[in-house]
Specification:
- By secondary structure, the chain is α/β, with parallel strands linked by helices.
- The chain is built from 4 helices and 6 strands.
- It has a 6-stranded parallel β-sheet with strand order 1-2-3-4-5-6.
- Helix 3 packs parallel to helix 4.
- The longest helix is centred in the C-terminal third of the chain and has 25 residues.
- The radius of gyration is 17 Å and the shape is globular.
Amino acid sequence: MKILVGWSIWYGTRNVEEELAKTLENGFDYLEISLAYPWISNEENLVHIISVAKDLGFKIAFHGPWRDIRLGSPYREISESSRAIVSKAISSVVKYEPEYFNVHIISEEITFSEKVKDKVLNEAKKSLNMLQKVSEDTGITITVENNPQGFFSLPSHFNFIENYDSIYFCLDVFRKGNCRDN
């Protein structure tokens, strides 16, 4: 079994071609393209990056928008809007046949209260239900990545994900002191 190793780029990457050349030189297999704003709304730039990456032999994956996206928000209006944005983002990249599409389940609410935690988990499950349906409808593998801090930062926060057949967990390892369980 070969382990594939990827590198992520985002709109803060100043020289994409130079970054891709270094990434290839260092032996990476795939490129995870961040759909953070404003790249998500710049189709021409996205097509260029994908074209250059594929010409170099990279497999393509996407990291969904996440900074203002709150798929676990206990505010139903926020979590529903977040689901709509993520669903639209996935739909916009299906044509590129990505290896996977990565998302974060985020809520900024403090979850020491069981009532709050239950509400956050309920909205997270609604988001996972939506993601599973999108995965089944499109054939795209969905990965859910842990967050740098707060709820959904530790692998144990994702025990409920085992009930979702087409959703995978992506563990991002942070240096000591960056993860905080609240």
